[in-house]
Design goal:
By secondary structure, the chain is α/β, with parallel strands linked by helices. The protein folds into four domains: 305 residues, 7-stranded beta/alpha barrel, CATH 3.20.110; 151 residues; 92 residues, no CATH class; 164 residues. It has 27 helices and 22 strands. Strands 1, 4, 5, 6, 12 and 15 form a six-stranded parallel β-sheet that branches. α16 packs across α18.
Length: 781
């Protein structure tokens, strides 16, 4: 224990940031998830609550003004699930860069980075075959290197699940440490070499211990402080940064530790505990302003304080290993052990065992087929495992599929006879791994989002491997899946759910419908050539209701031609009769895609195209509409008779269209003319509009402010951009419209803070920056 009170105590707070993969494997797009409303899906909801919030966390003064925007990741230890980080990179590049930047800053500050790797898609490693566990670890490491440009020193184990096999694999791949729950520890060695049996709250938390594998390999393990983790996760400690800081001081005063650390789900910082990211930012500030603690990370501490004593872990039920979220070991992920989250009192989780058994049998079949066909394709010159491990370069998009194929052909000296088959074998392996994602067993019922997702991945695995075997892949596990029964009788069994995915519209049909509607309904500036993993390669419309669509599934290089005949059904929308030809295998299928088949997420995008088209109003017409609305408002205000409801509805719709058009049409009108038009339109909407219509206006202004913020972030601060942003804010607020200004705050913060001074040296730019500082709620101090 630390006996020198004047020496700051090293403090580590670890956040495990993770969401399971949620994409529909047929198109590689996350479907809209109604339970996440008002967000489109759970990734977006948790992102806004937590991942983005911690990259740009607000530290406020006593008046509620922003004094600092803190990148919390630069001060805490953290890991991100590779599949989640891939999604953040694709859809939220600014936050993604902040996450990477945080590791670089901590590396510069401490000599070791804050970021840790994670096993690829959160498979419970002790329950996996050694071969699969090794792939999960190697893919996780390769993904980390691709993003952070350094080798990881530590790895977060999904659910901290571990056994001796996992220890050996970690050491084999150069991982030096892991974080575990103290309840996983059975015995510890003291400085004299004496062994002590310990309970969870007795395990020393201020040092690392060596733990051993079956083959004698070792890694260091940090056992986190249990009460501190529980208070953060379940005791609402994040509601008061002062109280949290005092709790840290109390632990230090009581134990005089050499190290104080704990680990929790990262989502507690803002998602599970609203504004938890701000409490964390305030705590970081308190630690930096005081000398009691010094924020560090595990790799830095371990380099300075190598593990000297050993620890022995509990074996867990059936000697399978232990975790932090199952008191029985790792039973939660293969049987009805009593651990569950949510559900009714009479529910059970007996479905877990047959679900695990079915997937294990399918996985074994897939592995046998993979080894056989890869060996044949490469004439026995390639190790299938080595090839599979290297496939992560395609998963991380370090290489295209074609680049990967070419490199392996050159490396092996063999020309692959069937590129499509090769791609299907590898992609099928990816989904085989995905079907073991831990969340599929964690919760209360088979009918939940997560088990369904795993079943969909299993069905997709069967689809990809079926052309390469005479056996019926899915049928072979249906009898086992029937034994996995939902607690909700109407949900049926695992077999029922699997069949529902077999009956889904194909990915080619969904993508074809998307491109068809895009070409028919959108303006040229809204034309798209990608939909998830599909790319449009050719489109022609020989007749008004006839289209030929050529596309490619980039994940397996599958080329398809869709011959589409569209029929308009009065009162029932459209029906598209499709003949889809797989050009590589000369196979054709026919089917129908109706208006009712359009996924909700796609439909929302189609409505946006139509809205953009309807809102294209010329500058001259905009000015006339604004003037007419002003005359209408004055007449209504001073008239003894109310206007007709029809006229009111028409004028409100015209106002909203005109307002949206002002921000989307070419910038031909001078701002002072646009400002006057906006004021007339807003005055009418504000006075006569209902809450829904006011919400639409707020969204319009939010989008425009975000657009300008992105422009400033990408191209720099100028007087023109800054003054325009200020004008947009002012004109909205004059009519009591309050758009979201989050992105504007984040874009302007470096300039308010005093960075990039070369961009605002003139009196005019300084003046507008001062005004924006107030308008964006920054502290004047």
């Amino acid at each position: 224990m630390n006996t020198t009170s004047h020496t700051p105590v090293p403090l580590i707070l670890h956040g495990h940031f993770y969401q399971p993969p949620r994409e529909n494997p047929l198109v590689n797009i996350i479907p809209q998830q109604h339970s996440a409303k008002p967000y489109s899906d759970w990734n977006e909801k948790v992102y806004d609550d937590c991942y983005r919030a911690n990259a740009f966390s607000r530290y406020l003064d006593g008046y509620g003004h922003i004094r600092d925007i803190v990148n919390n990741y630069a001060y805490i230890s953290y890991n991100f699930g590779p599949t989640l980080l891939q999604w953040i990179e694709k859809y939220h590049i600014g936050t993604y860069r902040r996450i990477l930047e945080a590791d670089a800053l901590s590396l510069e500050r401490l000599g070791h980075g804050n970021a840790m790797a994670q096993a690829y898609n959160h498979t419970i490693l002790p329950l996996a075959h050694e071969r699969d566990a090794r792939t999960q670890i190697m893919w996780g490491i390769a993904d980390f290197v691709h993003r952070f440009h350094r080798q990881p020193e530590g790895m977060w184990l999904p659910e901290t699940a571990i056994n001796p096999m996992v220890v050996d694999l970690l050491a084999e791949q150069g991982i030096t440490f892991v974080i575990l729950s103290p309840w996983q520890c059975a015995q510890v060695e003291d400085e004299k070499g004496t062994w002590h049996s310990v309970k969870g709250n007795e395990v020393p938390f201020d040092r690392a211990y060596l733990i051993s594998g079956e083959r004698g390999n070792t890694v260091s393990a940090f056992f986190y402080h249990p009460e501190l983790a529980s208070s953060i996760s379940f005791g609402h400690m994040l509601r008061d940064a002062d109280a949290m800081y005092q709790a840290l001081r109390d632990i230090t005063k009581k134990h005089h530790p050499n190290l104080l650390h704990t680990a929790t789900d990262g989502e507690i910082y803002g998602h599970h505990e609203p504004f938890g990211d701000m409490a964390l930012a305030a705590l970081i500030r308190k630690v930096r302003d005081d000398s009691t603690f010094s924020l560090t990370n595990y790799a830095t501490y371990l380099a300075q304080n190598p593990a000297q004593q050993q620890a022995i872990l509990h074996a867990g039920e059936e000697q399978k290993g232990t975790s932090w979220s199952c008191s029985h070991g790792v039973s939660r992920w293969y049987k009805d052990c009593g651990c569950h989250t949510g559900g009714e009192d009479e529910w059970n989780q007996k479905w877990r065992t047959p679900l695990r058994d079915a997937f294990t049998q399918l996985g074994d079949t897939v592995d046998t087929l993979f080894d056989t066909h890869i060996s044949e394709l490469f004439s026995q010159t390639v190790n299938p495992d080595e090839l599979l491990h290297d496939y992560v370069r395609v998963l991380t998009k370090s290489e295209t599929l074609q680049q990967f194929i070419s490199r392996w052909e050159e490396k092996s000296g063999v020309t692959i006879s069937d590129h499509r088959k090769f791609a299907e074998l590898l992609e099928g392996q990816r989904y085989k791994h995905y079907m073991f994602t831990s969340c599929g067993w964690f919760f209360s019922d088979l009918g939940g989002i997560e088990p369904r997702q795993n079943l969909h991945y299993a069905v997709r695995t069967c689809d990809l491997y079926q052309p390469h075997t005479d056996n019926q892949m899915l049928d072979s596990i249906m009898s086992i899946l029937r034994q996995a029964k939902s607690n909700r009788r109407h949900e049926g069994s695992g077999a029922t759910i699997a069949k529902s995915y077999v009956q889904m519209i194909s990915g080619e049909a969904e993508a074809g419908a998307y491109f068809l509607m895009n070409q028919r309904f959108a303006r040229p500036e809204d034309y798209q050539n990608t939909y998830g993993k599909f790319r449009l390669t050719a489109y022609s419309a020989p007749e008004e209701d006839h289209a030929i669509i050529e596309l490619i599934d980039t994940s397996i290089e599958k080329r398809s031609v869709l011959d589409v005949q569209v029929e308009t059904m009065p009162g029932n929308g459209y029906i598209a009769t499709m003949t889809i030809t797989d050009t590589d295998r000369d196979l054709s299928i026919s089917g129908k895609f109706s208006t009712a088949d359009i996924p909700v997420r796609m439909l929302d995008e189609v409505y946006t195209w139509i809205d953009h088209s309807l809102s294209r109003i010329s500058d001259e017409e905009l000015k006339r509409i604004a003037t007419d609305i002003r005359h209408y408002s004055l007449l209504v205000k001073n008239s003894r008779s109310a206007p007709s409801e029809t006229l009111y509805i028409e004028n409100m719709g015209t106002c909203l269209r005109a307002l949206r058009s002002i921000f989307s049409t070419p910038d031909t009108l001078p701002w002072e003319h646009k400002r006057e038009s906006i004021s007339f339109l807003l005055a009418f909407i504000r006075r006569k509009g209902r809450q829904h219509e006011i919400g639409i206006v707020q969204d319009i202004f939010t989008q425009e402010i975000a657009r300008v913020a992105v422009l400033i972030h990408a191209r720099g601060f100028t007087y023109e951009r800054a003054s325009y942003l200020l004008e947009v804010l002012n004109v909205a607020r004059e009519q009591d419209i309050h758009p979201t200004i989050t992105q504007a705050q984040e874009a302007l913060y470096p300039y308010v803070k005093g960075e990039h001074r070369q961009d605002y040296t003139t009196p005019l730019t300084t003046q507008v920056l001062d005004a924006l500082q107030v308008a964006l709620n920054f502290s004047i101090d």
